[in-house]
Amino acid sequence: MPVLARHGALAALWFLIVATPLAGAAERPNVLLIYIDDLRPQTADYGHEQMVTPNFSRFAANGVRFENAYCQVPTCGASRASLMTGLYPTRERFPDFLTWAENDAPNAKTLPQRFREAGYTTVSNGKVFHHKNDTAARSWSEAPWRPEIGGRTFYNDATAEWMKTNQETRKLPGGKVVKKVPMWEAGEVDPLDTSDGKIAAKTMADLERFAKNDKPFFIACGFAKPHMPFFSPEDTYKTYPLKQIALAEHRRMPQPQPAGLRGVREQNAYVPMTPDFSREVTYNTDEYHRRMRQGYYASVSHADDLLGRVMDKLEATGLAENTVVVILGDHGWLLGEHDQWAKNTLLHDALRTALWMSGPGVPQGAAVPSYVEFVDLHPTLCELADIAIAAGEVHGESFVATLKDPNAPHRDHAYTRFKPGDSITSADYQYVRYRDPRGRKSALLIDRKNDPLGMTNHAGEPAYAEIEADLSAKLDAKIAKATAK
């Protein structure tokens, strides 16, 4: 049976949860945190009707979806370190994807560490921290686990044959030179035999194991897709015919372009060969855009399928009634907007990310309009488990109130930083201040209400001077808080 048609009897029973108090209950809730690398709000329940994501939709129908969730750093390692410690980034702390929380914040307790110290069994499957062993000794009850194959593992004989003659290379951060792999592959592979499939299987086995004892658990499960390269089972590719894929509405940078805003280069680490390996697709042509979107969409559907399997297992084991489930991307992602791909930029689509929660007492089918920051997840989950955090230990603020009442206010803006820039985003504006190593300054001010595509930069315009001053003051307050600890 095709992957995307699999529903099963268990799926119909998803999350028939008995409502209990969100915090302070006699029985502490389990936690299942599912990271999905590079997932932006690109699912059907977020309004993208072309997406085939039935399991995300069913999860959203049985929990809450956050409409304005923002990462603190738009790159994986730094974003995860920030969330796990509950600390804002600075120029020195959590600067890039190679971040080690152990090095940048050695005295900060991690989220799984707090749960472990509170008597939970804590487990890491797949990519949770960027580095497998980051804070491992104090965070996890068991050694962090990853499969023997990774996100760049290809599955088809045709890909293997092409790799024999491929001469294009890339340099890894440590200086090692390796062959580039192709950007796309519709894999002739069972979904559970992929790298992420093995992570899902390990997580399902852990759920069965923990269902046999009464000790609470904190499982973090990290899927790699839809991170590039877009290697996904062939059924998922067939779901998105190339000719039916629309292009981004806007394909130029905001004008005038601030000096600090540079293009993203991550996509250059892969070779854009057509699936039959007959030719290389020219960068940023319409065909390139459609193939990139097709690959991303297929990979999201692959993640959706695996999510469904894990959730079915949670229900089958009887654990769903007392498990808080968090599903999130680690940052946003650009799908051709501004002719850019991936993250590693302060353009808006790289900052807003996907976030859902479900569990005992959480409303069903609700959307949270208030702004939340990823650092807020750390104190929120601790409050749900009745784990105390001393004042000043984290920068995040618990949003348990929004889990009781999705319309309750939390934040009205969110802070993100990356490399030379710091950003504030609200419903009406996004403001970014850049300062390069030589001290040269530039800025980006987007009027989101009147220019939702982010085409025009109003920084420095007299008509926006009062707004810019207010946003700049808010940015100063965030930076001061971040640098105070």
TrEMBL record:
Native organism: Alienimonas chondri
InterPro entries reported in the protein's UniProt record: Alkaline_phosphatase_core_sf, IDS, Sulfatase_N
Signal peptide: 1-25
Chain ranges of the Sulfatase N-terminal domain: 29-387
Domain of life (superkingdom): Bacteria
Enzyme class: hydrolase
Cofactor: Ca(2+)
EC number: 3.1.6.6
CDD domains: iduronate-2-sulfatase
Alphabetical keyword list: Calcium, Hydrolase, Metal-binding, Signal
Assigned protein family: Belongs to the sulfatase family.
Pfam families: Sulfatase
Keyword field contains Metal-binding: yes
TM spans (from-to): none
Protein name: Choline-sulfatase
Alphabetized GO MF terms: choline-sulfatase activity
